[in-house]
Amino acid sequence: MQIYIVRHGETALNSKGVLQGRINEPLNQSGRELAEITGKAMKGIHFDCCISSPLDRAMETAKIILRESGNDIPIDTDDRIVEMDFGDLDEKELTEMGEDGLDFFYAPFHFAGFPNGETIQDVCDRTQDFLKELIAKDDGKTYLISTHGCAMRGMVNYLTDKPGDYWLGHAPYNCSFTIVEAEGGKAHITDIDKVYYDPGLIVDHYNK
Fold first, then answer.
1. 34-63: per-residue pLDDT in tens?
2. How many angstroms from the chain centroid is the CA of residue 122?
3. Which of 62, 56, 107, 108 is CA-nearest to residue 82?
4. 185: which residues sit within 8 A by CB, 6+ positions away?
5. C-alpha angle with apex 43: 160 to 74, nearest 5 degrees?
6. How many CB atoms lie within 10 A of CB 49?
7. Which pTM value belongs to this model?
8. Domains of the chain
């Protein structure tokens, strides 16, 4: 069983480096082009199933990757893999939280959470519930999961060697993959932040 977990392509809000949680922003042109390049490079990978966050940027990324990789399959959605709820900070810069905002990157499990939003533990609980349920199917299929940066890190946190290092050095890059292999209900990560495009195209909008 293989699970390819991808972060969506770039959006206009990504390019500004602001927080983008439940704002339903579409991909920008760069985001679409990167998803197309990624999909073309993944020709030969057969996906049996695709599950996406219901937000447009994740859905559009999944559609493009499936189309360009030659996989004509439907896309299901699951609310558990939607992006973190940034509450009152959605569409704003993290610096607007002052010193408290630093914990989001540097001590995320001690971060008190966003006003009227979620904590990192909230994100871990719901995304890991999704992944563990998927792994328990043990159906030998190959899945494409289209999600978001913070949600991706939370989803696989319990499978990493250092779960205390939530961000693993940085936020996931647009159209980068974490790949999980599972058998008999047991899972392990085979790749983190794998890109199927020229690494020179990587843009890190949220370098901590």
1. 999 999 999 999 999 999 999 999 999 999
2. 15
3. 56
4. 135, 136, 138
5. 80
6. 18
7. 0.96
8. 2-197 (3.40.50.1240)
